[in-house]
Write a structure and sequence with these properties.
- The chain is an alpha/beta fold.
- The chain is built from 6 helices and 7 strands; from the N terminus they run E-E-H-E-E-H-E-H-E-H-E-H-H.
- It has a single domain (about 5-225), classed as P-loop containing nucleotide triphosphate hydrolases (Rossmann fold, 3-Layer(aba) Sandwich).
- Helices cover about 35% and strands about 20% of the residues.
- It has a 7-stranded mixed β-sheet with strand order 1-3-4-2-5-6-7, with helices on both faces.
- Helix 2 (about 85-100) packs antiparallel against helix 6 (about 205-225).
- Magnesium ion (MG) binds near residues 37, 38 and 76.
- Magnesium ion binds near residues 37, 38 and 76.
C-alpha cells in the first residue's frame, strides 16, 4: 500500500469526541509506554513527525487520530506501564482505554511488544482485555534493530513462556531501519480489502450488566499493583 496522505485529525478522550466514523476498519496501536507506537506510526506513514515521539514515557493520555489516504484512521493510544504515575492517572488511562475498546467503531488493534522484554503483567492484561471485548488484534514486535538474529531467537523463546504465538501470526518491525514496514502495510491493506466492520449486535440488558461487572473487576484488579 502506498501512503499518499497522512494527517493528524484530532485528539480525544471521550467517545463523543472521536472523529466521524468512516465505515472503515480503524487501526489502533497499543502497548507499554516507550515501546515505539508513535515511532511505528511515523515509520509506516513515512512522516517523521506525524505522531509525537518522546524519550519521556507516558506523556500523552489522549487518543490521537490520523487520517490515511482520505480513507481510514490510524489511532495512537496512550501507553501503559510507566512507573511512578499517580493512581488517579492510571484510573484515567483505564477509563479512556475501556471506552475506546468498548466503542462500536470497527477496530483492529496492533499490540506492540518490545522484542527484548518479557511481556509484563500489564501486557498480559491488555491481551485479556482485547479478548474480553472481542477486539481482533495482532502482535508486532518492535525495536528489531536492537537484536541480532540469534538474540531474536532467544528473546522469542523467553516471550513464549508467557504468550503462545506462531511465527506466522506476528509481525516484526524496526522504526530505525524501517524493516517490517511493508509487512505491516500489506497486512492493513488486506484487512481493508476484506472490508471488515465490527458487527453490532443488539445486547440484552442483562448482558450489559454482566459486562459491566466484569469490567469493574478488571479495573479494580488493575488499580492495584503499585
Ligand atoms: N532503536 C530503536 N528505537 C526506537 C524504535 N522505536 C522507537 N524507538 C525509540 O523509543 C523511544 C520511544 O518511542 P515512542 O515511539 O515515542 O514510544 P511510544 O510507545 O509512542 O511511547 P508513549 O507515547 O509514551 O506511549 C524513542 O526514543 C524512540 O526513538 C526502534 O524501532 N528502534
Ligand atoms: Mg507515543
Amino acid at each position: 500500500m502506498i501512503i499518499k496522505q497522512a494527517d493528524f485529525v484530532k485528539s480525544a478522550v471521550y467517545e463523543k469526541d472521536y472523529p466521524e466514523h468512516l465505515q472503515k476498519l480503524e487501526f489502533a496501536f497499543v502497548g507499554r509506554s516507550n515501546v515505539g507506537k508513535s515511532s511505528l506510526i511515523n515509520s509506516i506513514t513515512t512522516r517523521r513527525k506525524l505522531a509525537k515521539t518522546s524519550k519521556t514515557p507516558g506523556r500523552t493520555q489522549l487518543i490521537n487520530y490520523f487520517l490515511i489516504n482520505h480513507e481510514f484512521y490510524i489511532v495512537d493510544l496512550p501507553g501503559y506501564g510507566f512507573a511512578k504515575v499517580p493512581k488517579a492517572m492510571k484510573k484515567e488511562w483505564g477509563d479512556t482505554m475501556n471506552r475506546y475498546l468498548a466503542s462500536h467503531r470497527g477496530k483492529f488493534v496492533f499490540v506492540l511488544l518490545d522484542i527484548r522484554r518479557i511481556p509484563s503483567e500489564e501486557d498480559m492484561d491488555m491481551l485479556k482485555w482485547l479478548d474480553h471485548y472481542n477486539v481482533p488484534f495482532k502482535i508486532i514486535f518492535t525495536k528489531m534493530d536492537k537484536v541480532s538474529a540469534n538474540e531474536k531467537f532467544k528473546c522469542m523463546k523467553d516471550i513464549r513462556k508467557k504468550i503462545e504465538f506462531r511465527n506466522d501470526d506476528v509481525l516484526f518491525h524496526s522504526s530505525l531501519t524501517n524493516n517490517g514496514k511493508e509487512d505491516v502495510l500489506t497486512f492493513i491493506e488486506n484487512m481493508l480489502l476484506q472490508n471488515y466492520v465490527e458487527p453490532v449486535f443488539p445486547v440484552e440488558e442483562e448482558q450489559i450488566l454482566e459486562k459491566d461487572e466484569e469490567k469493574n473487576k478488571f479495573l479494580e484488579a488493575n488499580e492495584g499493583g503499585e
